[in-house]
Amino acid sequence: MTPPAKILLATDLSSLSDRAQDRAASLAKQHDCELIVLHVLESPNKNNSIRRIPFLPFLNYNKLAIEKARRRLLDDMSAMHAHADIMIEEGEPHEIIMRVAEKRNCDLIVTGVARNEILGQRTLGKTVARLLGKSEISLLIVNERFRGPYSRIAVSADLSPASKKAIETAAAWFPGGALAIVYPFTAPKSHAAENIDDYQEQMRQVAHRDLTNFISAIDMTEEQRARLNKIIEHGSEAGVLKDFIRVSDTELAVIGSPLQGFLSYAVFGNHARRIISSLVCDVLVVRDRR
What we know:
Elements: E1 6-10, H1 17-31, E2 34-41, H2 61-79, E3 85-90, H3 93-103, E4 108-112, E5 115-116, E6 122-123, H4 125-134, E7 138-142, E8 152-156, H5 161-173, E9 178-185, H6 196-216, H7 222-226, E10 228-234, H8 237-248, E11 252-258, H9 262-278, E12 282-288
């Protein structure tokens, strides 16, 4: 596993997109890799009121919008001392993002949430939701302001090949960060146990053994293994991960995603949206393209 060689930043130029922009520029500098910045103009509705503005003819609207977006992105990249290939296209955002990422052979797509609502509620937006369900390239969803390289990272583990890829990716892409491997376990038929606490502790020991064996089979350096910390708790994946992130001040959650056709896209997309919407940190969805 190697660090990313090409990063695609997909930005809608909203206020929250600045967070994704800062993170993408930092990752590109950290790994000395190519940064591509993409802004997609959605095709305007034919009934758009801009037709009725005499000093701004509709036929010139896209040209003006493209020039404005290009100036904005050039200024932003210059302010961050980042070198980027800036692209502005028109169409359905998620389709353009996936096409450009595939054509340019990107390893990672970085994007932000649609908006950050009152009481900490986050809306992923339709573009991010569609990327979660359809993109075959790993996706970093940036919620929080950039405060430096990730130092506290939680990787959700379910002992699947996808979670193995997630652990490998987190270890390689974020050197120096502490890696918490979060493994939720269940205790089937605990209601029939004479002592529920003892029974759950037995299941915890089984889970610890299984996770230890799973991690030992992952190809990592000794330095990477030294950064691992196993977190084993009873409960659901979403619940355990959410609680751990809340009490540990985790900055990045990493989730593995299998690619096995349309059904897994639909199932994982819904599953991921529920988890990601509940988290208070950035989220990296790692695609296992094997």
